[in-house]
Write a structure and sequence with these properties.
Strand order of the largest sheet: 2-1-3
Number of helices: 2
Distance between the termini: 27 Å
Strand content: 15-25%
Number of domains: 1
Radius of gyration: 12 Å
Length: 54
């Protein structure tokens, strides 16, 4: 089963991590999850700033 990664430099989803690890967020089980990676990161950062747990 493939894994999906979000590339923070190209803003594209990669299947099975084709780029350098320093450029990737993931892995995700689906392409859709990877497409929304930055939204999830932003939400977690905001929760962390407020002192909330996930």
């Amino acid at each position: 089963m493939p894994e999906y990664w979000y590339n923070v430099n190209t803003h594209e989803v990669e299947e099975d991590a084709m780029s350098d690890w320093s450029q990737l967020i993931g892995p995700y089980k689906t392409r859709a999850e990877a497409e929304h990676a930055l939204e999830k990161v932003k939400a977690r950062n905001e929760a962390w700033d407020k002192g909330e747990d996930d």
